[in-house]
Amino acid sequence: REFYQDLIRLAGKYPEIKVTIRGKDDAWCGLPEFADVYRAIASTPNVEVDRNYRDFNVSYELLAEADLVIARYTSLAEEALAAAIPVFVCDYLPAARNVIAEVYDYHDGHPVFVGSYGDLEARVGRLLRRGEYMPGEDHDRMRETLYGSFYDGHVVSRLHRELRRIWRSTLPR
Questions:
Q1: Which of 82, 99, 107, 130 could form a disulfide with 147 if both were Cys (CB 3.0 to 4.6 A apart)?
Q2: DSSP 129-162
Q3: pLDDT tens digits, residue range 37-55?
Q4: Model's pTM, two decimal places?
């Protein structure tokens, strides 16, 4: 709820942006607990929920059109980062902040995570007004270090293979 409400607030603050919500499914849209949120989305002209789950690769098509991705931590965010699309990963819940960032900081703390709605709003504002995300050389270095400049829809599987290889190398023989 908080994540969707924050996207609605963000769209109200910056009416020049278009927010497309896409999740692993759209089951939440029919839940009574989310009815007010879904109505708020429907009444916000620059926010929509993409509910097309019958066509293949819709998420990647949306990603190809995106100028910015705002997400919970997800493999699609990794694909966007590998493709040099700015990403803000919302790493906050009502009772916790910076849970993922505590474990994984995108190699030397690159500014991918946002820890509050205020942080998200300010960072989106800087990106819109000044094109400020992270210095280009930092972004390029992060992409090369983490993804080897590959962005083919298989970034996460390669990362998982490498992590398994590293883990196995630490096991006693």
A1: 82
A2: HH--SS-HHHHHHHHHHHHTT--SS-HHHHHHHH
A3: 999 999 999 999 999 999 9
A4: 0.82
